[in-house]
Design brief:
TIM Barrel; eight-stranded mixed beta sheet; 2 domains; eight-stranded parallel β-barrel; alpha/beta; binds pyridoxal-5'-phosphate; 12 helices
């Protein structure tokens, strides 16, 4: 079960010198000294820029790029992406405040999430942020809050379409879902919307996440454009924007291949021509999280101990599940697979051994990598987990067992 395919792909993104991994020109030893820490997440701004450039090179210019802050809300990352993307999607009031303080124009910020408290809704109404409405009940609450505040709320109806995004890591549309309003219900609601005290800016059609199959995304885009045209035709006035969703995935595991954006971009170009009249003058948006940040980040911890138990060699580290839940396999994986890993100060050592890398927590769930072939490693060496720039510290139980929280740095 040792795993090298993706190790090479993701490793090749980063520079190296004398067998040492470099981020922003710094070795892991240097980053550790910079931070005064031996466990950290480090993000490379050049790789984030490359991901944005890849999107821009393939996806027609007409389609704007928004970043879903939930993937990585680290403030320097948000600031860096502010200058690279056209808008932000937020999932909480806290993320909304980050988006506002970054200087992103308010019209380019949207707020999604199936359960928003009145205080969160009011905060978005006061800010002028577009609320992606997730239910008829939420729309009623938004209308009432807007009336009391004497402000017209800016809203987009989040639509739960009848179709789904096939082959997705996470399916978030089609069938019964807690997200958005069912397409049929939206069509019934639209004639009444003109009488409501809200400004309907448009629609949000988000079907799923972590998709590596171009054909599945193309199929979803075809359905999404058809639905968008149907919604525009049924809308009492012309909407300003339509969010076409996202779902561009990144390869985490052995055997996975990078998403090929060439056919996705070509298909979007054809769809823009096909729906040129139906969607004329409407701003179109694709909203991505992990695609922009995951490959730019590594999680780094230090080997504390090396021991052999009945034939298995364990590297015991000072970081693990509490900082990086997704890597431990406990953030939505059915069968645990290894993220790509390396020893960051011994990148191309030829002599290798099979090891299992674990964290400091007293639970068998705290696995960093299981049965991987790596250079001969000793205490003090750096374990690097690639593809770690999204859903890291903020998607991990950092309080669990009271170990210190992890630090982050953007280089
Ligand atoms: C509404 C919405 N937008 C964007 C995302 C980001 O997904 P990803 O990081 O896979 O691009 C999600 C993920 O759950 C989401 O629910």
């Amino acid at each position: 079960m040792s795993d090298t395919t993706i190790q090479h792909e993701s490793m090749s993104q980063f520079a190296q010198r004398d067998n040492q991994l470099l981020l922003g020109g710094f070795s892991l030893n240097a980053i550790s000294q910079l931070l005064g820490k031996t466990v950290f997440y480090a993000y490379d701004r050049q790789i984030m820029l490359q991901q944005v450039q890849k999107f821009r090179a393939h996806v027609p210019e007409r389609i704007k790029l928004h970043y879903a802050i939930k993937a990585n809300p680290y403030w320097p990352v948000v600031q860096c992406l502010k200058s690279l993307v056209d808008g932000f999607d937020v999932a909480s009031q806290q993320e909304m405040l980050l988006a506002l303080q970054s200087g992103m124009p308010v019209k380019d910020i949207s707020f999604a999430g199936p359960g928003k408290e009145d205080a969160e809704l009011l905060s978005a109404i006061v800010a002028g942020v577009t609320l992606n409405v997730e239910s008829v009940g939420e729309l009623a609450r938004i209308s009432q809050l807007g009336r009391h505040a004497n402000i017209t709320p800016q809203v987009a109806l989040r639509v739960n379409p009848a179709f789904e995004l096939k082959a997705s890591g996470m399916k978030m549309a089609g069938g019964a879902k807690p997200f958005g309003i069912d397409e049929e219900q939206v069509l019934q609601l639209l004639p009444q919307i003109a009488k409501m005290p809200v400004k309907l800016r448009g629609f949000h059609i988000f079907c799923g996440s972590q998709n590596l199959k171009a054909e599945a995304l193309i199929d979803a885009h075809q359905h999404t454009f058809a639905l968008a045209a149907k919604l525009v035709a049924a809308c009492p006035y012309r909407p300003e924007m339509i969010n076409l969703g996202g779902g561009f995935g990144i390869p985490y595991f052995s055997g996975e291949r990078r998403l090929d954006l060439t056919p996705v971009g070509q298909s979007l170009q054809l769809l823009l021509q096909q729906y040129q009249v139906a969607l004329a003058d409407i701003e179109l948006v694709i909203e991505l999280g992990r695609y922009l940040v995951a490959e730019a980040g590594v999680y780094v911890c230090q080997v504390l101990d090396k021991k052999v138990s009945r034939g298995t060699t364990y590297l015991v580290c000072n970081g693990g599940l509490h900082h990086h839940l997704a890597n431990s396999g406990n953030f939505g994986q059915v069968i645990r697979k290894n993220y790509p890993v390396a020893i960051g100060n011994k990148l191309s050592a030829t002599e290798q051994e099979q090891v299992t890398i674990v964290g400091p927590l007293c639970t068998p769930l705290d696995i960093i990598a299981d049965k991987v072939l790596l250079p001969i490693t000793e205490p003090g060496d750096w374990v690097v987990v690639y593809q770690s720039g999204a859903y890291g510290p903020t998607a991990s139980p950092q309080q669990f067992l009271g170990h210190p929280a992890v630090v982050e740095v953007l280089l």
